[in-house]
Amino acid sequence: MMTLMKKRRITIGSEPRKALSLNRWLNSLRDSLTEQEAKHLVIAYENLLEEYGEEGKQMADSYMDVVVRANKEVFGGDGMSDELRKLLQPQIDKEITAALAEQKSVYDARLAAKDAETADMLAARDAEIAKLRLALAAYQQ
Q1: In principle, which of 37, 53, 120, 124 could form an S-S bond with 33, CB 3.0–4.6 Å?
Q2: How deeply is 38 buried, as exposed, middle or buried, from its count of CB atoms within 10 A (0-12, 13-18, 19+)?
């Protein structure tokens, strides 16, 4: 958060909206969030992602991880209640889709490498068979 604050030079007096958002983030660093506060935090998380993009995502993910671990009863036993999961579902789907696409590209690259390796092995085998046939034909004459 400090990196983003330094870059944007947020001050309490000059930008009340951002100061309120910063206050919400700082206030959530405790283990007694209510369900309503958690919902507001998720909305603030989504706004941060929209405003700062990938730079904000890494920081916000780390921050949310700390808050979720400290407030497991609010976010649910597996780390997130159904309502909060619904709020975050678009982001979750996007991350899953990106991870699947990355895994598919890795798999496709490995498959292409294996295909090339197999083609090379078959070509070498065919060449060896051709040599043996020539040797057999020469021996039979």
Answers
A1: 37
A2: buried
| pLDDT tens digit sequence for 6-15 | 444 444 445 5
User: For residues 10 and 17, is the Cβ–Cβ distance under 8 A?
Assistant: no
Residue 45 burial (CB count, 10 A)? 23
Domain boundaries, the chain: 2-80
Q: Which amino acid is at 129?
A: I
Q: At what angle do helices 82-140 and 35-70 cross, to 10 degrees?
A: 50
pLDDT tens-digit map of 111-135: 999 999 999 999 999 999 999 999 9
Kind and range of the H or E run holding 41:
helix 35-70
| In the block, residue with structure tokens 């969030």 | 33
Q: Which tokens sit at 31?
A: 């283990």
H or E stretch covering 97: helix 82-140
Contacts of residue 91, Cβ cutoff 8 Å, sequence gap at least 6: 46, 49
Is residue 58 within 8 Å of residue 1, measured between CB atoms?
no
